[in-house]
Amino acid sequence: DVVRAILSAGSRAGSPGPINIGSGVGRTLRSVIADVERVLGHAVKVSYTAGRPADTPANVLDIRRAAEAIGWEPRQP
Question: How confident is the model at residue 16 (pLDDT cuts 50, 70, 90)?
């Protein structure tokens, strides 16, 4: 998905400004780690630490501009 987004953006003339590339769907860190482990075929070592005051607890990208500006939409959730 990311490579397709980059190629799509690179094939357009001019710069539409910043564009969010993502799924548009929130995921937990644990679900991302589970996917990495599934792809690798083994568990990975994970260390959890306390969050910092400046950390964002959740971040879901608004990807509408990617569809409008470069004609891109994610295929993977």
Answer: confident
Q: What is the pLDDT of residue 47?
A: 94
Query: Mean pLDDT across the chain, nearest whole number?
Result: 90
Amino acid at 51: G
Whole-angstrom Cα distance, residue 69 to residue 19? 8
30 CB-side CA count, 13 A? 1
Coil, strand or helix at 70: helix
Which residues touch 9 (CB under 8 Å, ≥6 apart)? 19, 69, 70, 72
Nearest alpha-carbon partner for 22 in 41, 1, 49: 1
**CA–CA separation, 1 and 72 (whole Å):** 9
